[in-house]
Structures are given as structure tokens and as C-alpha cells.
């Protein structure tokens, strides 16, 4: 009877192979789910982007939250390939005429921005970008940066960052574009990217006060965030390690992490935990009187 009970207890404990098989199945399942999600994203990205047919459609798209910024991308999409193909036939007079028309849209957008009409202002800058010939790099850089300013007001940070990046491509020393992008990076908690932009601003203008303050303020925040992430990662690894080591009668407590103060790296040392000493029942017995 005792052997039969012992056999049942052993059968209830999963073997090491079974534990590893279960972990592998879970990892494989998550990989399949990730693959399916990537395929879905790929299919959605392969669909042709459309531009809004009316200004009302464009403004309605800007009412979407940042979680739906794919709609915003379609609403303010600039098809530069179409512009490039069209400009092949333009004369210098045509280019100047279109440049003046784009400047008109820009002026309208500036006035709307000053009046707090940010959605309408974004539309005007988009119309200017769809009109201004590609040859006028600086004009287009200003338009992208201006549209980024409206998106910052509308809390469309991801799309605003894209506009700033496009502006910087066209004008690599454009301080306003770096400044707006740095502010939006920080709002999205992308502190490393924000710090890099503020440092670039100081290269362009060493007296820029906000950049000077930011380059002192952000490094401790980045260090604190990294320490928090490191702690969370170690906790997750500890949980996984305990799951694997448990069948062997071990735990992560048997392994001690030692950090090298010079390199910051870690080394792992194994230490066998001492079993608590069992009390000797004979020592606790009182002598009987003779």
C-alpha cells in the first residue's frame, strides 16, 4: 500500500521533459500569434493610401485619438511620387505659380493657428504641401514643421514626430523642427530620443535655455527608468527560473548575482542552501526520577 501511494505522488509531479515541453508550446504559440499579427499589419499597410475628398473628411480624421493615427496618416498623406511625376512637365513659371499658391495656403494656416483653429490649420498646411513643388526644399521643411506644431496642439504626437523628421530631412539644421520633435518625444516617454534632439539643439544654438535645462534634467530620468526596467526584467527571469528549477529541488535563491563595480556586468555564483537542523527528540526528553 505504501509503494502504491508513493507511485501516485510521483505521477502527480510533472517530469522535467514535460515542463520544458509545456514552456516550448507556450513560446511557440506566442510566436504564431505574433506572426499572425504581423501579417495583419502587413496586409493593412499594403492597402493604397487615400486622401480625404473634402475638408470635412480631413478634419473628422483629426478628431480620432492617437490610437487611431493610421487614419490621420491617410488624411494628411502627401503623395510625393505623384508630385514628382507632375513636375516633369512644369516650366519655371508653373513652379513659381504653384509656390505662390502654397504660400497662400501657408498664410491661411498661420492665421488659423493663431486663432486656435488647429484642425483647420493642419488642413491648410497639408494643402500647401500638396501644392508646393518638391524643388523648394526649405519651403516644404517649414510647412512640415508648421503642421507638426498643429499636431502637437492636437496631441497627435506620433504623426507630429513624423512631420518633424521629414522637415529635418529637407533642412538638417532646422532648430524649430528639432525642438518640436524633442518635446513630443518626451511626451511619449521616449526620453533617449528627446535627449538626443535637445543635444542637437545646443549644437545649433549653445544659448538655448530650454535645451540646456533638458540636457541636465533628462539623464537622471533615463537612469531611473532603466533601473526600473532592469528590476522588472530580473523579476520575470526569476519567476521563469523558479519554474524550471523547482523539479530539481532548487530555486533562484541558490544562485547569487554579483555585480562588477568596474564593468557593471553580473556574475552568477551557486550556493547550496543549508537545510535547517532537525531537533534531537532525545535531547528534549527530561530524565525520569529513579
UniProtKB/TrEMBL annotation:
On whether Zinc-finger is a keyword of this UniProt record, the answer is no
Q: Where are the TPR repeats?
A: 175-208
UniProt-listed PROSITE patterns: TPR, TPR_REGION
Matching InterPro entries, A to Z? Answer: TPR-like_helical_dom_sf, TPR_domain_protein, TPR_rpt
In the record, which residues are listed under signal peptide? none
The alphabetical list of record keywords is: TPR repeat
Write down the SMART domains for this protein, in alphabetical order.
TPR
User: What Gene3D superfamilies does the annotation carry?
Assistant: Tetratricopeptide repeat domain
Record keywords: Cytoplasm included? no
| Compositional bias of kind Acidic residues | 57-70
Q: Low complexity composition bias: which ranges?
A: 271-290
Question: According to the UniProt entry, which residue ranges have a biased composition of type Basic and acidic residues?
Answer: 1-11, 34-46, 71-80
List the Pfam families. Answer: TPR_1
Listed Polar residues bias regions:
47-56, 255-270
Enumerate the residue ranges of region (Disordered): 1-80, 255-290
- What is this protein's record name? Tetratricopeptide repeat protein 1
Q: What is the lineage of its organism?
A: Eukaryota, Metazoa, Ecdysozoa, Arthropoda, Hexapoda
